[in-house]
UniProtKB/TrEMBL annotation:
Keyword Protein biosynthesis: yes
Protein name: Elongation factor 1-delta
Family: Belongs to the EF-1-beta/EF-1-delta family.
Gene responsible for this protein: EF1D
UniProt KW keywords: Elongation factor, Protein biosynthesis
Nucleotidyltransferase found in the keyword field: no
Coiled-coil segments: none
Length: 250
């Protein structure tokens, strides 16, 4: 046995085999990882593209929302300006009405205040409350009575407003054979204080029949329209009915 026999089982090329084995497995690993790395890269690129798209969409949405809000703010501001302008117009009208009412009230108060003064001027200085003491002389009493009499006479001489009415009467005959001229003559024969007959005319009715339309002016305190109608209806030979066509105060 030589001196090298005790190491005959030593694997002198083990290192070479191990390196070859490692290289083999590393190649397998790289071959397996290459498609996965590509997929990862693609996924990463898609994420980047999605993020950019989302950012662009959000920016677009934000810009549209801002423009919409700005438009609404402008419209609201315009509406508020219109409302304020309308309120100012109403305030001016109310102020004008209040000034007018105040002026009318002031004029009315002045008229009321001036009325007693005018009444005193009309009295011509008549003292209706002269002394009633027992020591009053007959001369003073006589003067007072004369003044009272003069005052009463002045009041009685003031012209009074006479209420009058203008009346138009429709007077209908019995038939077409009624003498309308005679009818008018009988109507005008009705006379009294406060009654004044006016113009008259014939108005056709039907079948050749005419009615007499006559106007008159009456003083309301002296002549009653009911009385006048009754007096007219008493002319039975000519008058069938009497109607009031118009009645106006003068």
């Amino acid at each position: 046995m030589t001196k090298y026999e005790h190491v005959q089982d030593i694997w002198l090329t083990k290192k070479i085999y191990e390196d070859a084995e490692n290289a083999h497995y590393e190649g397998l690993a790289k071959a397996a990882l290459t498609p996965l790395a590509g997929e990862v890269a693609k996924a990463r690129q898609k994420l980047i593209e999605s993020r950019d798209t989302f950012t662009t969409a959000v920016a677009s949405i934000d810009t549209g929302a801002i423009k919409f809000m700005e438009k609404k703010v402008v419209e609201f501001e315009k509406s508020m300006n219109d409302v304020l302008s309308h309120l100012k117009s109403l305030d001016d009208r109310i102020s004008s009405i209040e000034r007018h009412i105040h002026q009318s009230k002031s004029i009315h108060e002045i008229d009321i205040a001036a009325a007693p003064q005018q009444e005193e001027e009309e009295d011509d200085g008549v003292d209706l409350f002269a002394s009633d003491s027992e020591e009053e002389s007959e001369a003073v009493a006589k003067v007072r009575e004369e003044r009272l009499a003069a005052y009463a006479a002045k009041k009685s001489n003031k012209p009074q407003l006479i209420a009058k009415s203008n009346v138009i009467l429709d007077i209908k005959p019995w038939d077409d054979e009624t003498d309308m001229t005679k009818m008018e003559e009988h109507v005008r024969k009705i006379k009294c204080d406060g009654l004044l007959w006016g113009a008259a005319k014939l108005v056709p009715l039907a079948y050749g029949i005419h009615k007499l339309q006559i106007s008159c002016v009456v003083e309301d305190e002296k002549v009653s329209i009911d009385w006048l109608t009754e007096k007219l209806q008493e002319i039975e030979d000519y008058i069938q009915s009497v109607d009031i066509a118009a009645f106006n105060k003068i």
